[in-house]
Amino acid sequence: MKARTVRLWSVVHIWTSLISTLFLLLLCLTGLPLIFHHEIDELLGYAPQPEAHASAAHATPQRVADAALAADRGRVLQYVSWDKDEPGIVMAFTNSAPDGAPDNATVRAFDAVSSKLLGPVGVGPMLIVLKLHTDMFAGQAGKLFLGAMGLLFAVAIISGVVLYWPFTRRLRFATIRDSASRRVVWLDWHNLIGVVTVAWALVVGLTGVVNTWAELMLNQWKATELASMVAPYAGKPPPTHLASLDVVVARARQAASGMEIAFIAFPGTPFTSSHHFAAFMRGDTPLTSRLLKPVLLDGETGEVADSRALPMYLQALLISQPLHFGDYGGMPLKVIWAALDVLTIIVIGSGLYLWLARRRRRGAARVNAFAKRTPVPS
Questions:
Q1: What keywords does the record list, in alphabetical order (predicted)?
Q2: Per-residue pLDDT for the chain (378 aa), expressed as one digit of tens each?
């Protein structure tokens, strides 16, 4: 590689790394506990636990909905969801209005058999960590900003690989020059750990970027596919009374045979229209359980109105979300994700140290050169 090309890639690597460093450290430090957020919530007592039942039948969806409204009088239901990892719990989202802001929603867990209120969901210190990680308490602007930092991180990784390639021709892979200066030793470790974690860092970084676009993707789906699905209802007034949730759930299951319900969105919420329930169905394999298929049902009668597969960009989003936090393979994969996260923190920190050490060395060299040129008064 020509010296000029090396210098160009070096500039790209240094500045993309420096610009994103502080925010990447924030994302790595907050992402580490989020990998184990279920376990941490349970340890701290913020994870509601279902009651013990001897093979009793589950409460009907409408019974759970009634319990949710009774627990939060004066508000409306937005969503009812069934957690595939905790079949004994049903979660209900209430808000001041169907299209109320997500931050104003209250999420409560109910026992799937007795419909008894188990407690709030999404409270405690992990909520603060999650907000810092996703948008830094700055809403959509914060998400897009962190997405831009993620893209810079990807460029820094690629440029680092390009710079490391000619370096390996002079030294064997994984060489650590212990007899050299401290800066050179740190450089060798920075390069080695960076290469070891490069694939993981790119996957997690890019899936994180995709996650920051979730709201934009949802708006695009609503403006195109969803608008086409609800076109026959254009001009009709919203339903004056809602169909029983039991009817909605039963017909959604009939319309998507072999699939289970992930969550129900009530009419007027951001995931559907003002006329329809939307039942988002999932499969039963590790992959298909992450992919959702919407079934729209008439808000008054519960009749199926339409059902279409989500577009590819939303399917990519649904796959990227659990991949970002290592939620596919249970605890072993979470431990691997956590170890790689710690190594990435070391890479970021060592890169910052190398830049500062280089600046100090250049500053000292300029001082020495100036001293040599300056005559000493006699």
A1: Membrane, Transmembrane, Transmembrane helix
A2: 677 888 898 899 889 999 999 999 999 999 999 999 989 999 998 989 888 876 678 899 999 999 999 999 999 999 999 988 788 899 999 999 999 988 899 999 999 999 999 999 988 899 999 999 999 999 999 999 999 999 999 999 999 888 877 766 666 766 777 777 888 888 888 888 888 899 999 999 999 999 999 999 999 999 999 999 999 988 888 888 999 999 999 999 999 988 999 999 999 999 999 999 999 999 887 777 888 999 999 999 999 999 999 999 999 999 888 888 887 767 888 999 999 999 999 999 998 888 888 888 777 667 676 566 666 555
Instruction: State the DSSP code for 36.
Output: T
CA dihedral for 133, 92, 108, 56, sign (positive or negative): negative
Q: Residue 201: CB partners within 8 Å, gap ≥ 6?
A: 153, 157, 340, 344, 347
Show the CA angle centred on residue 10, arms to residues 8 and 14, nearest 5°: 125
Query: Which of these, 107, 117, 10, lies nearest to 63 by C-alpha position?
Result: 117
First-to-final CA distance of the chain: 51
Cβ–Cβ < 8 Å for 134, 15: no
Residue 376 pairs with which residues in a beta bridge? none
Global pTM reads 0.85
Angle formed at CA 308 by CA 306 and CA 312, multiple of 5 degrees: 155
CA distances from 180 to 73, 172, 184, 188, 197 (A): 70, 16, 6, 10, 24
Q: Which residues pair with 107 in a beta bridge?
A: 93
Query: Which residues on adjacent β-strands are paired with residue 333?
Result: none
* Domain residue limits, the chain: 3-39+129-211+329-373, 47-121, 213-325
Asked if residues 324 and 208 have their Cβ atoms less than 8 Å apart, the reply is: yes
Instruction: For the domain made up of 47-121, give the CATH fold.
Output: Nuclear Transport Factor 2; Chain: A, (3.10.450)
